[in-house]
From TrEMBL:
This is Helix-turn-helix domain-containing protein. Residues 12-58 form the Helix-turn-helix domain. Gene3D superfamilies: 1.10.238.160. It comes from the Bacteria.
């Protein structure tokens, strides 16, 4: 799934777009532990692109 046009750190809207889900669903799944845990970077909550890519690969089995 590697897309080198994506930034290394993704905002919730970017994660939602990649996964084909809404922002609220991103937050619900992150809070319930079903998505990788986001990090704070300069006051902004973001996800590491590599962790989201790994998560998707693991879904594929």
């Amino acid at each position: 799934m590697t897309d080198n046009t994506l930034p290394l750190l993704l905002r919730d809207t970017q994660v939602a777009h990649l996964l084909g889900i809404g922002r609220t669903t991103v937050w619900n799944r992150a809070n319930s532990g079903k998505l990788p845990k986001p990090i704070k970077w300069e006051g902004v909550t973001v996800w590491r692109r590599t962790e989201i890519e790994k998560f998707v690969e693991e879904l594929a089995g």
